Amino acid sequence: MEANELKAVTVDKTVDARGTACPGPLLAAKKEIANISSGQVMEVLSADEGTKRDIPKWAQKKGHDYMGVIEEDGYFRIYLKKG
Amino acid sequence: MAQKMTMALFSGSVDKLTAAGVILSGAAADDMDVDIYVLLMGARAFKKENIGEQGSMAELPHLKDEFFASLERLKVNTWVQFFKEAKEMTNVKIHICGLAGKIWGGEKLEDFNELADDICGIGEYITSAQEADVHLFI
User: How many A-B residue pairs are in contact by the CB < 8 A criterion?
Assistant: First the structure.
């Protein structure tokens, strides 16, 4: 999805992992996605460049839908829909 | 059925233990079953009395202070925290090699920290490595 479409998405859970380096954001995503239901949307905030590639690959393997990423000033918003 | 990772953890140096912890975290995020076989030098780090020890570095030992300062600045877990967290997230078993334990004065499971699950022989490691989807030696 494009950034303008992602901005319109209703987010059910936000995980702020900006304070951690790899593998912190991935572990935070893994933990927190357990707390939402299938079809709900989670956004992961990360300032770690590697996370922007890591989480989409992890999501694909785990059966979640990677929706896209928005690059903010100094961090990323990564959007996932739980499978 | 979950994929399986087998790791031979030979090193007891803090840089390699941290690397092992990062890799273990990735395996935990992937819901892999993990068997870690702690061999020779690694077993010393798992001795109960050594758990808080900062330890030595195998690579670039003269930059140890810089390494630790960066880990702190980046809020990176200690290797023990990585291992604990991974054990909470997925099926991780940590086996201490019987010979390695004895070398460092550890005869029984209670001589090691709470991360250790059992003491084993080398045949079990070989079997686990043969069955693994991912096999690492650190």
Answer: 33
Kindly report, residue by residue over B35-84, the tens digit of the pLDDT: 999 999 999 999 999 987 888 999 999 999 999 999 999 999 999 999 99
Is the Cβ–Cβ distance between B23 and A24 less than 8 Å? no
pLDDT digits (tens, 9 = 90+) for A28-79: 999 999 999 999 999 999 999 999 999 999 999 999 999 999 999 999 999 9
In this prediction the ipTM stands at 0.82
The domain of B101 spans: 4-137
Number of separate domains in chain B: 1
Read off the CATH number of the domain in which B15 is found.
3.40.1260.10
A21:B74 CB<8 A: yes
Catalytic, A11? Answer: no
DSSP 8-class letter at A28: H
Of the residues A1, A22, A36, A70, which is catalytic? A22
Q: Where are the domains of chain A?
A: 3-81
CATH class held by domain A3-81: alpha beta
In chain B, which residues have their Cβ closer than 8 Å to the Cβ of A44?
A: none
What are the Cα distances from residue B88, in Å, to B45, B61, B81, B82, B84?
20, 32, 11, 10, 6
Whole-prediction pTM: 0.91
For chain B, give the percent of residues with pLDDT over 70.
Answer: 100
Q: Choose the closest CB to A21 out of B26, B29, B76.
A: B76
A53 vs A59: CA distance, rounded Å? 10
